[in-house]
Q: What sequence folds into this?
C-alpha cells in the first residue's frame, strides 16, 4: 500500500500554558500598550527586551511590531536614505528587499551558492557599490561569517543581519545576530517563537539603539526601556529622529517571554526532526542535500534540497506527486511568485540584472517546513515519500 502523510505543514504547537497565563494577566488588567504601566510596574515589553538582550549577550534590545519593521528600522538607524544602494541576498523572502524599498533605497542583489548562502565572491566584487549589507540568513543557512565580516569591515560596509530563520543559531559558537552592527529577528507564527507577529532588534551601539527606540515610537518615554542606553544618548538624537511607530505591545511580549526561556530545548527538538529527514533523503539519485558546515550551529525549522538542472516540468511533477501523498513542497524556481516564495526578479519595484549562476541554483531549490507538531516517525515517513517520488520522476 502506498504510504501517505496526513499531518499539517502549517499547524504549530499550542502556546505554552505559562504564556497563556501571562497573556490573561495582561488582558485582565487591560494595559496592553507598552508605556501604559502603573507606578512600580516594569511592563512585559520592557522585561522582554531586558531578557532577550541578556540571552543574546547584547547591550541593547528593542521589541517592535514585526521582523520586517525591525529591518526597516535598522536601515533608518544606520543612516540609509532614499536612493541609497543596499546590498542584499538574491535568495531571500520578500520582506528583505521590501524593507529596503520601504525607506526608498535600492537593493543590489548578491548571488547564492549551492550551500544556499550568500556568494562571498560575488559580494567581494560588489562591496564598493554600497555602504550597507542587509544579510539574510535565508532559511537558516549561515555563510562563512568570519570571511564576510573581515571583508565588510575592511570595506567600511555596515552589516545588518536578518535572523528571522536563525534565532538560536551560531557560527563558531557566536550567536547569529551578534556579528553585524544590528541583528533583527521575527516572532511571526512560522518562526522560532510565536506571537503571531512581532520583531526584536539587538545591538551594542548606543546611538543605533537610541535611534531605533525613537523611530519605533517611544516619544519621550524612552526612560521606561530597561535594555536601552542612558538618557544622555537620547538627548543627542531625540529632536532629529522621526517617529515611525511600530511598537510591540505587552500582550505579545507576555506570550513571548516563556517561549524564549525554552528556546534551547525547542532548537534541539527541531534539529532532531531535521536530521531524521536529511538522513532519509541523503543518497537519493538526482537529489542534493545541503550539507551543514561544522562551524554552524543550525536551527532545523525548515529543510531544503536541490534538484539541480532538472526541467521545470519534472520539478512540477515531483511537487504534484508529493502533494498527492500529503507532502507539501515549495519551489523557488517558479516563473511566478507563489505563496511565500518569490525570486529577486519577481520584485519589479527593484531593478535587477540577470544572475545566471544564481538562477541555476534558485531553479532547483525545494523547501519544506518542519513544524514541531511532526513526530520523528512523521519525519521518516515524509523522507520516504519524497525519496520515492523524486526517484520515480528521476528514472522516468
A:
Amino acid at each position: 500500500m502506498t504510504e501517505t502523510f496526513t499531518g499539517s505543514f502549517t499547524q504549530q504547537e499550542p502556546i505554552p500554558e505559562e504564556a497563556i497565563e501571562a497573556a490573561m494577566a495582561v488582558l485582565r488588567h487591560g494595559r496592553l500598550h507598552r508605556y501604559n504601566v502603573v507606578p512600580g510596574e516594569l511592563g512585559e515589553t520592557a522585561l522582554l527586551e531586558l531578557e532577550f538582550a541578556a540571552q543574546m549577550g547584547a547591550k541593547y534590545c528593542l521589541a517592535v511590531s514585526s521582523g520586517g519593521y525591525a529591518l526597516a528600522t535598522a536601515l533608518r538607524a544606520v543612516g540609509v536614505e532614499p536612493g541609497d544602494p543596499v546590498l542584499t541576498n538574491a535568495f531571500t523572502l520578500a520582506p528583505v528587499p521590501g524593507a529596503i524599498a520601504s525607506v526608498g533605497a535600492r537593493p543590489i542583489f548578491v548571488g547564492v551558492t549551492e550551500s544556499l548562502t550568500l556568494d562571498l565572491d560575488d559580494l567581494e566584487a560588489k562591496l564598493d557599490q554600497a555602504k550597507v549589507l542587509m544579510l539574510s540568513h535565508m532559511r537558516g543557512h549561515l555563510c562563512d561569517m568570519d570571511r564576510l565580516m573581515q571583508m565588510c569591515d575592511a570595506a567600511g560596509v555596515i552589516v545588518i543581519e536578518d535572523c528571522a530563520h536563525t534565532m538560536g543559531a551560531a557560527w563558531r559558537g557566536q550567536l547569529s545576530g551578534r556579528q553585524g552592527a544590528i541583528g533583527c529577528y521575527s516572532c511571526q507564527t512560522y518562526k522560532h517563537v510565536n506571537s503571531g507577529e512581532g520583531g526584536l532588534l539587538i545591538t551594542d551601539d548606543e546611538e543605533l539603539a537610541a535611534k531605533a527606540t525613537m523611530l519605533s515610537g517611544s516619544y519621550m518615554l524612552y526612560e521606561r526601556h530597561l535594555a536601552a542606553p542612558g538618557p544622555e544618548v537620547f538627548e543627542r538624537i531625540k529632536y532629529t529622529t522621526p517617529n515611525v511607530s511600530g511598537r510591540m505591545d505587552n500582550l505579545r511580549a507576555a506570550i513571548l517571554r516563556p517561549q524564549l526561556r525554552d528556546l534551547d530545548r525547542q532548537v534541539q527538538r527541531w534539529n532532531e526532526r531535521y536530521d531524521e529527514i536529511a538522513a532519509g533523503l541523503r543518497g537519493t539519485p538526482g537529489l542534493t542535500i545541503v550539507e551543514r558546515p561544522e562551524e554552524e550551529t543550525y536551527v532545523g525549522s525548515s529543510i531544503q534540497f536541490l534538484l539541480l538542472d532538472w526541467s521545470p516540468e519534472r520539478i512540477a511533477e515531483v511537487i504534484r506527486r508529493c502533494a498527492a501523498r500529503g507532502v507539501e513542497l515549495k519551489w523557488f524556481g517558479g516563473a511566478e511568485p507563489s505563496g511565500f516564495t518569490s525570486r529577486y526578479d519577481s520584485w519589479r519595484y527593484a531593478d535587477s540584472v540577470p544572475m545566471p549562476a544564481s538562477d541555476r541554483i534558485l531553479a532547483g531549490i525545494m523547501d519544506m517546513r518542519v513544524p514541531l507538531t511532526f513526530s520523528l516517525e512523521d519525519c521518516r515517513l515524509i523522507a520516504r515519500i519524497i525519496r520515492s517520488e523524486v526517484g520515480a520522476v528521476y528514472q522516468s
